[in-house]
Design brief:
The protein contains 9 helices and 12 strands. The protein is of the alpha/beta class. It has 3 domains: 84 residues, Winged helix-like DNA-binding domain superfamily/Winged helix DNA-binding domain (Arc Repressor Mutant, subunit A), CATH 1.10.10.10; 96 residues, 3-Layer(aba) Sandwich (D-Maltodextrin-Binding Protein, domain 2); 103 residues, D-Maltodextrin-Binding Protein, domain 2, CATH 3.40.190.10. Strand 1 and strand 2 form a beta hairpin. Helix 1 crosses helix 2 and helix 1 packs across helix 4. The longest helix is centred in the N-terminal third of the chain and has 28 residues. The two termini are 45 Å apart. 29% of the residues are buried. It comes from Geodermatophilus ruber.
């Protein structure tokens, strides 16, 4: 039995007329009659009563019709879904992100993407820039939002998607908390909460180098794995920390965020993905460029 046999039977059952059903199916009536007879023979039951007055469904035919309609609907749905997968309209997109992306970049990008592709399931994983490289390489992630720069590699692609200044997070009541801006050398004697080098080597070195250029070696009191932990320690009065400006979106009433004067410290976030033809769902994400609020899809990358 093939799906076309079910379609032939359903058409006859709906029309209750072989000639009209044949016209609807764009086949000749004798061929349709032969196919229905072959179907009945295969099933071993009579589905239709035929006489000079017309065609009628038998009791078995009425039951078979309901099942046939359901099978055809499921088959058509499977075809539609498979084609949608090829177009990247359904499926799964695995996205990694470093913790600061949660403040604005990640939710903004995902909102824009879901407006265009609501049936794509988004799988989100917090990661680090170093780990994200491994996860994108081994295809655990389709794409990751990471800190840039990362060392160039022929098998990876990156694109800068946002940039923000670095602020100094200090406890409320700290001597620098009410200042409009702070020079970097003013924190030379402060206990610093710093991102751990094994977690984010580039970011760790960036901050240490900035302190060295300002004429001092930082007094690192605590090394942490994320910005949120750093802010938590600052809130507890355990030091000061360099944080991205977006950290202000995570309200912490016992922490003040002070601009840094003349330090020119900025953080760049980037999208990271594998080189080569991307899966359809990732291709749609890259074309849409949702970090730009998904305004206008661009040409394929």
């Amino acid at each position: 039995m093939e799906l076309r046999h079910l379609r032939y039977f359903v058409s006859v059952a709906e029309e209750l007329h072989f000639r009209r059903a044949a016209e609807k199916l764009h086949i000749v009536q004798p061929a349709l009659s032969k196919q229905i007879s072959a179907l009945e023979h295969e099933l071993g039951v009579r589905l239709l009563e035929r006489d000079r007055r017309g065609v009628a469904l038998t009791e078995a035919g009425r039951v078979f019709l309901a099942e046939a309609v359901e099978v055809l609907a499921r088959a058509d749905g499977a075809v539609d879904r498979a084609r949608a997968v090829v177009r990247g309209e359904v499926g799964r997109l695995a996205v990694g992100f470093v913790q600061p992306a949660l403040a604005d970049l990640l939710p903004r990008s995902l909102r824009a993407f879901r407006q265009h592709y609501p049936d794509v399931v988004l799988t989100l994983s917090e990661t680090t820039s170093r780990t994200a490289i491994e996860q994108v390489t081994d295809r655990s992630l389709h794409l990751a939002f990471v800190r840039l720069p990362i060392a160039p590699r022929p098998d990876l692609r990156t694109e800068a998607v946002s940039q923000e200044p670095v602020l100094l997070a200090v406890p409320r009541g700290h001597r620098l908390a009410e200042r409009p801006a702070v020079r970097l050398e003013e924190i030379a004697e402060e206990e610093l909460v710093l991102i751990a080098r094994p977690v984010e080597p580039g970011l760790h070195d960036y901050y240490v180098t900035a302190c060295n250029r300002a004429g001092f070696s930082p007094r690192v009191a605590h090394e942490v794995s994320s910005t949120s932990i750093a802010i938590g320690l600052v809130a507890g009065g355990l030091g000061v920390a360099f944080v991205p400006a977006s950290a202000r979106f995570a309200a912490q009433p016992t922490v003040a965020h002070v601009p840094l004067e003349d330090a020119d410290l900025t953080l760049t976030m980037g999208a990271l993905w594998r080189a080569g033809p991307p899966p359809a769902v990732l291709d749609n994400f890259l074309r849409l460029r949702p970090w730009e609020d998904g305004r206008t899809p661009t040409a394929a990358m």
